[in-house]
């Protein structure tokens, strides 16, 4: 059965953050809040945990996972970023966006789109995630918590735990954090392309 941690959204308790990171490092699948909605996450190199997430969401091999990063300095390790893309990322992170970029060789092949070798990158504006990433020291491999058949992400931590208590190791209750997915922007080509309209303002990219 999954654990439930109530972590303060403004002042995350260090003890609980450390325990959550330990669960991740031991191969755990964690539900955590972001600045848009709750998400499913695991450690970047953990193939078994990734397979568990794919089973929960019934995802196929074409699904683009997202690397949730603490800041821009981490992004360049995992994605190819030129000066113009860097300026755009700097202007919109942290925030409610997922950016699709060409991946570097640091990204495990199984996380990439099989044909395009791209990866989603995200820097959320959420104190709990920021502290988790700082303690973990690497990105969290992530996907939004949208269960099969649902049109919107789950929003209530207690409902989430009831639905997934035998499928995840930890649910972090960080309060209501929204119910809209991120805006997805493809930056692989010269002109930014809005792939999905979500919580992030798209007027910058029109």
TrEMBL record:
Domain YrdC-like, residue spans = 14-200
Q: Which Pfam families match?
A: Sua5_yciO_yrdC (PF01300)
Q: Which domain of life is it from?
A: Bacteria
Molecular function via GO: double-stranded RNA binding
- Renumbered to this chain, the signal peptide range is none
InterPro entries reported for this sequence: DHBP_synth_RibB-like_a/b_dom (IPR017945), Sua5-like_dom (IPR006070), SUA5_domain (IPR052532)
Protein name per UniProt: Threonylcarbamoyl-AMP synthase
Q: What species does this protein belong to?
A: Nitrincola tibetensis
